[in-house]
């Protein structure tokens, strides 16, 4: 009886902190990210706007650096820059680290410039974390299924093209992206 009660409480405790999940289908396979609304509400809301409006579909992972990360969401297949909503506040001080399999907002040198581009860390990238001297990059979720698909991205040959480096030779395209749980 006590064992069952403890198991039930553990299940309830983990589900309280579970955020929405988004399935990302690519031409390399599917992966699922779980978002952390509790610690990154602004980033999660922003990301979900692009998921809900469908504009991540047919975008590409345009920057893939083995042993570092895969960045996408900002360019169509033809490298046309995709429209954005207003930039958001940087939430990098939320206590979530840029560890392997986490998803974070990409930005320019301006810490509060993130719009639609995101990246997934292949490894722990501590130098991207917030500190007193570093505004950091805001983590807002984690790949919870299919990280092997993400890792495949880092094994693809890249090139420089259109003024960008580390562009996959064979485009890695998001073919479908949808919220699969709230």
From TrEMBL:
<protein>
    <recommendedName>
        <fullName>Peptidyl-prolyl cis-trans isomerase</fullName>
        <ecNumber>5.2.1.8</ecNumber>
    </recommendedName>
</protein>
<feature type="signal peptide">
    <location>
        <begin position="1"/>
        <end position="18"/>
    </location>
</feature>
<dbReference type="GO" id="GO:0003755">
    <property type="term" value="F:peptidyl-prolyl cis-trans isomerase activity"/>
</dbReference>
<keyword id="KW-0413">Isomerase</keyword>
<keyword id="KW-0732">Signal</keyword>
<dbReference type="Pfam" id="PF00160">
    <property type="entry name" value="Pro_isomerase"/>
</dbReference>
<dbReference type="InterPro" id="IPR020892">
    <property type="entry name" value="Cyclophilin-type_PPIase_CS"/>
</dbReference>
<dbReference type="InterPro" id="IPR002130">
    <property type="entry name" value="Cyclophilin-type_PPIase_dom"/>
</dbReference>
<dbReference type="InterPro" id="IPR044665">
    <property type="entry name" value="E_coli_cyclophilin_A-like"/>
</dbReference>
<dbReference type="GO" id="GO:0006457">
    <property type="term" value="P:protein folding"/>
</dbReference>
<feature type="domain" description="PPIase cyclophilin-type">
    <location>
        <begin position="25"/>
        <end position="179"/>
    </location>
</feature>
<keyword id="KW-0697">Rotamase</keyword>
<comment type="function">
    <text>PPIases accelerate the folding of proteins. It catalyzes the cis-trans isomerization of proline imidic peptide bonds in oligopeptides.</text>
</comment>
<comment type="similarity">
    <text>Belongs to the cyclophilin-type PPIase family.</text>
</comment>
<dbReference type="InterPro" id="IPR029000">
    <property type="entry name" value="Cyclophilin-like_dom_sf"/>
</dbReference>
